[in-house]
User: What shape does this take?
Amino acid sequence: MSALNLKPNIDGPDDFYEDLLAIHEGKSKDESDAINARLVLILANHIGDRDVLKAALEAAVA
Amino acid sequence: MFDERYKLAFKAYPYERSADQDASIPVRHPVVVMGGGPIGVATALDLGRQGIPVVVLDDHEGVGMGSRAICFAKRSLEIADRYGCAQPMLDKGVVWNLGKVFHDDRKVFEFNLLPEDGHKFPAFINMQQPYFEQFMIDEVRALQAQGAPIEIRGKNRVESVDVKDDHTVLNILTPDGPYTIEADWLIGCDGANSPLRSMMGLDFKGRVFQDSFLIADIRMINDSFPTERWFWFDPPFKSAGASTLLHKQPDDVWRVDFQIGWDVDRVEELKEDNIRARLDAMLGPDVEYELVWSSIYTFQCMRMDKFRHGHVIFAGDAAHQVSPFGARGANSGMQDVDNLGWKLGLVIAGKAPEALLDSYDRERIHGADENISNSTRSTDFITPKSETSRLFRDAVLHLSEKYEFARPLVNSGRLSVPCVYDGSPLNSEDGLPGGPLRTRPGAPCPDAPFQSGYLLDHLGDEFVLLGINTSVPSQLEDGGVAVKGFSVSAADDTAGHIAGRYLGDADTAVYLIRPDQHVALRMTKFDEATVRAGLRRALAKEVD
Assistant: This one.
């Protein structure tokens, strides 16, 4: 079991950020909200570990 | 004087005058059950089979009309089998395994319950509740013919109770006027609106869900559906509401459930023309059907603080109520009875202290909380309570169409599975290293093929000591409580189910199993002192 990684971990942060914004381009607020919700679920499933997910939920709220 | 609150499907226990009505002083009974529904009748069966006299009082004369509960889970069938009446249920019921989930106009995925092999009973049968009740009443009649001390008194309405420390006085109204009896133990099985609960001024707390469901049972005339469970989120048909469920019942009847919202005009919605308009929109204009029964219901997720109040004990919907998603109403009530029957029997026989009944409270409140939590989660998924909740719900449905990972998140009701009594004071410490988690102390014994039948046929009604690949004494007695022992060889079950379900990584195992087929203790080899201590613990007796 690993802990939630809150240190820089993405190779090419600017590229990722651009990719993230790109999927929302031209989308309405509702469409974007739906995309984000799906993204959260896809990433959460990839992580899988409930302790890490819990820590991530807490980190997002704090 | 007697208002019929509902029509009868079967007149099963017409009013007959009892000798108690002519007694000069109130007759005292060991057990009186208030309510002749499925849970009350099951209670009578459990106690009657133990030879304990039991009187069931019901304000009607039989089984109420309407399909109502239609999904009976494996555990309920196993309990009914212990009572001797599961076979007719199995013969009558519809077995289904395939479910389809729709969102709007798209099928998002389908699932198969994939029932595990090596069980006498399927995961579920669908059957109208009146049949379930009638088969149990038939069993009551069969037992009565053999001399079992069970009485069901129709049109006996309890008007008031006077609850004492060690008994209750019941004032009853009949077509012949009032009379009074007394009960050492009073069991409240009088349903979600329990008059007994109100008479005693007891709390029923939880959440009321602001939604109503229109149920329509239809018999198809020129069309049919497969024997599957179909569930629509946001159905595309006109005025179908937030969700729709289609389910097969026996007699070519299909159950359709429309979730139609909170502010509805019940009288208007229940007019046949209006129900047909909804059904026609769903089924198409050319499908002919007969409307068998319809009803509108609302639900709540609530339970009493305590199920045991001295010598008054509540079971079934009277003690707890859940949403219909997951079939956890009647099925959990059957588990209440399963849990209470042997405990009350041993207490009445003087073989266990009254403290044993506190474990009913503890174990079944655990069960009720599990059911309430599951059905609340289903409700929140089916009817999202906020914009964000809906956003995620729709995201799950959207993803589940393409990706397998999202399907376990889809919640259209988590189907009832029996409760494991983890943390119960009746459990002994797990003494079987490598043993399967599913048969840990507190768990209900899973079935497995055994000889020409099934293992569960040999468990229950009394304490059983089960040896697997190791011998145990065939009889043991402690404080007047008998334990029956028998050994099996896991190799006799060539499919390996006994080994898989009871041994795990262990080579041998000994299980002490309660009369309700739950595990009290398990260990590698028979050790008399440990078994005796485990038995005393399972009886809520002092353990040195």
About this structure: Chain A is about 65% helix and 0% strand.
